[in-house]
Structure formats: C-alpha cells, structure tokens
Amino acid sequence: MSGTILADDRSFPGASGLGSVLPGNRAVLLIAVPVFLVLAVIAYITFQFAANERAAEGWVRHTYQVIDQLGRVLRDAQDAETGQRGFLLTGRQDFLQPYRDGQARIAADLKLFRELTSDNPREQARADVLQRLITQRFSAFDSGLSLAQAATKTSPALFAALEQGRLRMAALRAAVTAGMAEEGRLLDRRDAERRHQEAFEIAFAISAAVITLSILLAAAALLARNNIRLAAAQRARANEAAILQTTLESVREGIAYFTSDELLCAFNDSFFRLLDIPESLAVLQKTKLADIRATQSDGLRQLLRPPSDDQGGPMPLRIAASDRELEIYHAKVATGGFLIGVKDVTARLRAEAMVRQSQKMEAVGHLTGGVAHDFNNLLQIISANLDLAANAEAVRADPKLHARMQNAIAAVVRGSRLTGQLLAFARRQALEPRSVDLGRVIRDLSDLLQRTLGERIEVETVVGGGLWNTLVDSTQVENTVLNLAINARDAMPNGGKLTVEVANAHLDDTYAAVHSEVTPGQYVLLAVSDTGSGMTREVLARVFEPFFTTKPVGKGTGLGLAQAYGFVKQSGGHIKVYSEPGHGTTIKLYLPRTRRERDVSDQALSQPVQGGSETILVVEDDEDVRGAVVDMLTDLGYHVSKAESADEALALLHRGTKADLLFTDVVMPGAISTREFTRRAQEMQPHLKVLYTSGYTQNAIVHNGKLDDDAFLLSKPYRKDELARKLRSVLAGSTRVAIAPPSVAPDMAVPIRRGKVLVVEDVALIRMTTVDMVEQIGFAAAEAADGAAALALLQADPGIDILLTDLGLPGMNGRQLVQEALRLNPSLKVIIASGYSGEGEELVGVSHLLKPFDLQQLRKVLQA
User: How far apart are CA 736 and CA 433, in angstroms?
Assistant: First the structure.
C-alpha cells in the first residue's frame, strides 16, 4: 500500500534535476530553427535548380530541333535537286514529283525554322539568307527545267543553268552547314552550361547535405545529451522520491500530504494503519480528504482537516481512538498543500504513567523505609510485652483482661500487616522465594478462602494440568490471594462466585510490545475472578495507587491491590486487571516459571512451640526491643547474652563468650556493616549460626527484593511463637543451608584464609554491587574504576590476591591491565568478568565469569 510521491501545485521532488534539462531543450529548439531555414533554402534552390535544369534541357532540345530543321531544309532542297536532275537526265515526268514535294516542304521547313529561331536574330538573318538562297535555287531549278523542256540536253544554256544551280545549291548547303555548325557550337555551349549547372547542383547538394547532416548530428548530439540528462534527472527524481518514501515509511508517525485541492499526494502506511483507513482509498491524486474523513469517527473527523490560516505550525491535538491515544497535527507546505500527521502516543503515555507510578512508589518507599524500622521496633516492643503479659497468671485468671490483651495483640498484628503492605507496595519487603507448585498452594488455601468469604459466595478453584513450578514467596502468594478475595467479597454484597484459576501461560513479544514492563517468556498464571459490580475506567486507572479505595470510610485501607502489585513486580512478574461495570473483575497475576525442582517446605515452622537450652547472643541497638527479646528468649529457656552494638558483641566474643546463635538486628548504628560484623563473628566462632531481624532490611541481606541465599530473617514485629519456631528451624538447619562462616569451607571445620579481591569496573553501579557481593561471600574488597588506578592499588597493597576486572575499561583496556598486573605479581589470580561469551579467552591462566552473574557463580569462581 506504499504510496508514490507525486507533484503538487508548484513543486515536486526532483524538480531541481529536471531544471538542468531545460537549457538543453532550448538549445535543441534553437538549433532546429536554422535547420528548418537551411532545409527551406535548400528546397527553394533545389526547385530553382530543377527549373534551370528543365530550361537547359529545353534549350538543348530546341537546338537539336533547329539543327534538325536545318537538316530538313537541306534535305528538301537536295530532294528537289535530285528530282530535277532525274528529270533532266531521263526526261521522265515522275522525277518532277520529288522536286515539287521538296519545293512544297521547304517553305514549311523555313517557316518552322523561323519560328524555332524567333529569339535568335542571327538565326533569323540566316533564315533570310536561306530563304534567298532557296528562292534563287528554285528559280534556277525552274529555269533549268524550262531550258530542259525547250532545248536539247546538250544545250550550253542548260549546262550553264545546271552549273549555276549547282553553285547555288553548294551555297545553300554551305549556309545550312554553317547554321548547323553554329547550332552545334550553341549546343556544345549549352551542354557545357548544363553540365556546369549539374556540377554546381551536385556540389551544392553535397554541401547542403554535409551542412544539414552536421546540423542534424549536432542536434542529435544535443538531443542525446539532453535525453541522457533527462534520464539522469528522472532517475534522480525517482531516487529522491524513493528516498523520501522510504523516509516516510521509516517514520513511526503516520504522515499524509494533500494538495491545495485536498487530493492525496503522498502518504506512508502508518497513516492508513493508525487511522484504520481502508486500503481502497490509498489512491494518489484521486482520494480526497473528505473520503478519508468519511471513514472516521466524529472526533477524528473534526481533527482531520486542513490547517487554519492563523495556524503557524504543527499543533498536536490528542484524541482517544479505540484502545489507543493519538495525536493529530497539521502543517502548511510553503509551496502549496498541507500535511496531516498522526502519532500513536499510547506507549509514551503508558510509560509516563508507569514513571508516575514508579515515582509514587519510590516516594512511598522512601517514606516507608524511613518509618518502617522504628514503627516495627515499637510494634515489636508492644508485641513482646503483650505476649509475656498474656501468659501471666493474673491475666489468664481474668477473662475480661485476657480478652483485652488479645485485642491488643490483634491490633499489633493489624499494624504489622499494614506495614508489610506498605513495604510490599514499595517493593521493599524481604521475599523468600522458593520453587513451589502454585496449584498445591491454592488447593491448601481454598478452605480458608471459603471460611473467610462466607456461605453466600461460591469459591471454585481450577488448577491446570502439567503445571510448571514458579519461584515465589508462597506466604506472600497466600496473603495476596486473601486480599484479592476480600476485595471480591466486598464487590459482591449480595453473594456471587469467586474463581481462582492456576494455569501455564506464555507472554509473547506482541503482548510485551504493548506492555513495555513485561519480559516475554513462560509464566504461571494465577487469576482471581468475581461476579461483582466491576470497576469503571476511572477506577481502573487508579486501582494500584496506595490508599485509594472506593469502599466507605473504615471499610478498607486501599493497600490490598497496591500490595499485590508490589509483590508481583518484586517477584519479576506481571499483573493485569480486567473489569467492566456490572460484569465483574478478573485480576491476573503472571509469576515467572522456574525449572528448579519443588523445594521441600520447612516442617519445623509448623511444629508446636518449644524452647531450648542453647546460648543466644542478642544484638539490638534499641534498649526496649532488646529487653523484650531477652525476656522472650529467657522465657523460652535459652541462655541469653546481649549487646547494643556490633562492636560490643565482637568484644564479648573476643573475651571468650560462647554462643550457638547470633540474633542481630540488620540496621544498627556504627561503622561496621551488618555483613562485616557477622563475618567477623563467624571467624571467631566458626559454628556460630546467624538469624537476622529487621523491620526494614535495606540492602544488607536483601538484594533485588530477595533474601540472600545464605541469610535467615525474622521480620519485625514477630510473636513469641514465631520467634521460637524460627530459632528451632535455624538451630536445626532444617531450612536453607545456614550462612557459612567466611573462613570455613562448607565441608571443613578448620579455618582457611580468605584473600583480598580488587574489583576493576568503570560502571559505578556494577562496581558497587560486585564489591558488595564479594564482601558477602567473605572476601575483603578494593575497587578501581580504570586500569591506572588498579595498578596503583596493586603496587600499594601487596595483600591483593585476586584481580576481578572487566575488559572494556577506559584508557588502558582489561587485557593490558592483566598483563601489567601479572608482571607486578605473577602469583596474582585473575578473573575476567565480561558480557560476551569467549571474550578474553586468549589470555592464558585466567578464569572467566560471564555477565550477568549471581552470588553463587561469583562464589564458585572466587573459591575455585
């Protein structure tokens, strides 16, 4: 459907190329004029030559006629003389007849001779002489005949008359011969003139032909050159048109050019596609703007119009068409006509909405991060003291007081859930993802859903066959489904049906192109559908905003869907809401598929609450929280040591205080980071296990929203029974592999020495993350942004044992750095971290780490 660009009112693409051909056309016309003139002159002269040729031929024929006529005169005279002599010799009368015939013809011959030579005075004079001679000769003939008849044949008078007749006949013959000779000379002269004329004509014809041919050749050369230029100009115009059309097609916006008469003159496919214009209207110079407007809705019909006279430039106007947002703009063309542009801004608006949403979440996240730690500490103090007080004899003996204590504990739980929802929305909760069968999770949850929703709502669970495993925090999945189910219950006040469906799903490139935040691939779909009142378009636009709710005051916090949104995004998934007023709502959660085997659940967390006799070292900077935790641990039977900072805890361990488990807060004041503190503690006591607790984990043991593989976390606030079960789980090692002491190999109990790693990376964010990972594994770390700084550190710090470097560094590249580093320290272990497979393989004796790498891959290559 691609259009071909045509000329408009006063200009068209390629006109500059054709303009250079016009002088050639004028030159051809200027040459054609003299050619026609020369041909006209040649034609005229040729006609003159033909006339002269005909005249010359006439004169030649005339001369031959004169000569022939003189010959006839002579022959007639000779015939008359022959007849006379025959009669004189024989006396026979029949010889007189030729005489008389000749005498009769000769008069006519002379008359014709006079007519033929009427324009020649000399010939007229000759005619007079011939007339006189003939008259004299016939007079002599007559005298001779008279004498012959009167005398004898031997009469002297007769002989004298015959002699005189002979002499006159000789004179006549001489006159005729002279006339014929003169006519012969005239004939030769005229023949020579004719030949000269012919030679002249031939020369002229040749000259004219040469001149004409030269002119024609020059004209042909100019015409050929002009045709070559014309062809080149046409090719240039076609090339310019093709370039312009290709440029139009490469533009994502739809563009159409209309003449001043509103005729379609140029367009690209995007114009027809974005406006859903039928392909039958893609006809240049025939389709009018009115035809296109007739296919559009009322709103678009108003925008698809020529620009107004006072419109200075493109002024985009936005309109919603189907499920897309379009911008329409108009622009006048200086040479005539106008442009109409159509731009699909749906993706941009969605991206802007995502940015705004991200900014909202970031703002809430900062707010939550600043408040959650202290708020959860307060809740922890309240929760711990309530748990301890609830078990007191006086409380258990007073039912009313015991009920009040349980209400207070329930309020703590609600406050904890509220903080957890805020953290989930801000994607700052510490997830513990496992490879789980989501179908089993939903089956186990179905009874709880039915009890929660009541008998007026039918609950149906649909689990697809061959379900893939998914990597999620199952506890958060349960919380999310419960929140969605409660929202569905509120949307069905008169009862209805709730359907929870789990199935395999694949989000392809087409879907990802519409939803820019989606990564194409395989997912496990968790869909929650209800038959409730549904949501309007305005509500859908704000459905994930925190604290936004359509419920009455006191009926909801507005964090349910916000928590679901944050949890799904933090898990690397995608969430989509489908709803129409009066037709219910479907919320689809796409959680990423994993090929890992299903993880075995921790049975210890479901066991009855029990204490222990091990020694617990509690490190907590908040005195009230520390005191409450110590009381709960003591009540559970544990031996407890306590410290208010990492430095104090390390001092206790250094003095010989033994502990089986280190229970420490993540966020504490001081120069020592939590990871460094636990690493040093485990260096002192290799078998020491660590359990972290925090109301807000920041980035110490949580990265990319997921808890580190070698870390255990108990989020604040926690109940006494939760603390008891978590402690038994960590001490028994029934959950993930406990955090390995940095100085102890996984299968060894003897200390080993950890080296120091120099991380060389020019991208600051990657460098900081890599250093953090190196320190988490238990290695000391130094960092440099380029080769020169790295060499300076290697020379200044002989304790650096490992060089971890990227190859693409500014200035000195990674290969040069490795060579110089090995020259300084031949025993240096070198690891190349690159984003390209096989890059740097020519370097001998080095290890390779392909980006992106995770903590386990980095640990493997560092410990190799």
Answer: 11
Say which range, 84-93, 358-367, 458-467, 538-547, has the weakest mean pLDDT.
358-367
Does the CA dihedral 288-294-295-298 come out positive or negative? positive
3-state secondary structure string across 276-326: CCCHHHCCCCCCEHHHHHCCCCHHHHHHCCCCCCCCCCCCCEEEEECCEEE
Strand partners, 662: 617, 690
Closest to 782 in 3D by CA, of 762, 799, 763, 759: 759
Distance CA 486, CA 489 (A): 5
How does the average pLDDT of the chain come out, rounded? 75
Q: Give the strand pairing for 661-665 and 615-619.
A: parallel
Residue 366 clears pLDDT 70, i.e. is over it: no
For residue 686, the tally of other CB atoms under 10 A from its CB is 15
Q: What residues form DSSP beta bridges with 330?
A: 340
Which residues, in sequence order, are CB contacts of 58 under 8 Å at separation 6+? Answer: none
Which carries the bigger pLDDT value, residue 6 or residue 584? 584
Residue for token digits 């001081």? 670
**Structure confidence by residue, pLDDT tens digits, 122-132:** 777 777 777 77
φ, ψ for residue 634, nearest 5 deg = -65, -40
| H/E run at residue 832 | strand 829-834
β-partners of residue 525 are: 503, 590
Distance CA 352, CA 811 (A): 38
Contact 485, 458 (CB under 8 A): no
**Length of the chain counted residue by residue:** 864
Distances (CA, A) of 113 to 64, 122, 393, 459: 12, 12, 180, 145
List Cα–Cα distances, 533 to 481, 529, 679, in angstroms: 19, 12, 55
Q: What share of the chain is helix, strand, coil (3-state, %, to 5)?
A: 55, 15, 30
DSSP letters for 352-377: HHHHHHHHHHHHHHHHHHHHHHHHHH
**Across residues 98-123, what is the average pLDDT?**
75
The 10 Å CB-count burial string (b at 16+, else e) for 192-210 is: eebeeeeeebeeeeeebee
pLDDT of residue 88: 67
Question: Tens digits of per-residue pLDDT, 3-57?
Answer: 555 544 434 444 444 454 555 556 656 666 766 777 777 777 777 767 776 776 7
Q: Prior bond to 717 cis, omega within 30?
A: yes
Say whether pLDDT at 476 is over 60. Answer: yes
Sign of CA dihedral 830, 835, 838, 843: negative
Which pLDDT belongs to residue 266? 85
Residue 114 confidence class, pLDDT cut points 50, 70, 90: confident
- At residue 259, what is the residue type? T
Q: Are 95 and 87 in contact (CB under 8 A)?
A: yes
| Phi and psi at residue 432, to the nearest 5° | -120, 80
Q: Which of 69, 86, 73 is nearest to 141 (CA)?
A: 86
Residue 835 DSSP one-character state: S
With bands split at pLDDT 50, 70 and 90, how would you rate the model's confidence at 352? Answer: confident
pLDDT tens per residue, range 635-687: 888 999 999 888 899 999 988 888 999 999 877 777 787 878 888 898 888 88
- Asked whether residue 388 carries a pLDDT value surpassing 70, the answer given is no
Distance CA 604, CA 709 (A): 19
The Cα–Cα gap between 155 and 796 comes to 176
Instruction: Provide the 8-state DSSP code for 263.
Output: B
Which one-letter amino acid corresponds to residue 855? L
pTM, entire model: 0.42
- What is the 3-class SS of 690-739, one letter each residue? EEEEECCCCCCCEECCEECCCCCEEECCCCHHHHHHHHHHHHHCCCCCCC
